[in-house]
Fold this protein.
Amino acid sequence: MTLETARLRISFIGRQAEDLLPTEVLPIINSNPDFIDELEGSVGKRAYTLNEIEKSRRQSWREDLRVFTVRIKESGQLIGYGDILAPHPKGRWAAIGLLVIHSNWQCEGLGCEAVLAIDAMLSAEGWPEVEVVVFHERPRSRRFWESCGYRFERDSIAANGHLCWLLRKSLAPPS
């Protein structure tokens, strides 16, 4: 499945390990060193190795996980990737588990363009709501999601022990 927006092509891929190469993922992740520090729970990591990316991707694959790539429509350049869980393991809603945009392409509205396209797709599939979890260490990320129409629901604790904000967005049924 592929979604197209004015500037982006968002493609859902079958098997993350086969269809999205670690060599493609590595520059996107490593362009966001603050994100890496927060994932690791320490300051100073700043970059992953190719072996670490390969191991992480093998461990995180789940059948109910939908992985997507974000490319510039005109050039086909890969600028980001992410994943969706639908349904969420705890209820009848969808969750965007990850959206990472290469730092060179941030602050141009492309992330929000991708989110709005994914929200529209989830709405068309009949999901009433979508949620995202943002670590407290990432207030800029919270502002991003709120700019895309997500609202603060409550504070929570992620599986890795991080304090986080749970944000949700109601999805209007397709008209």
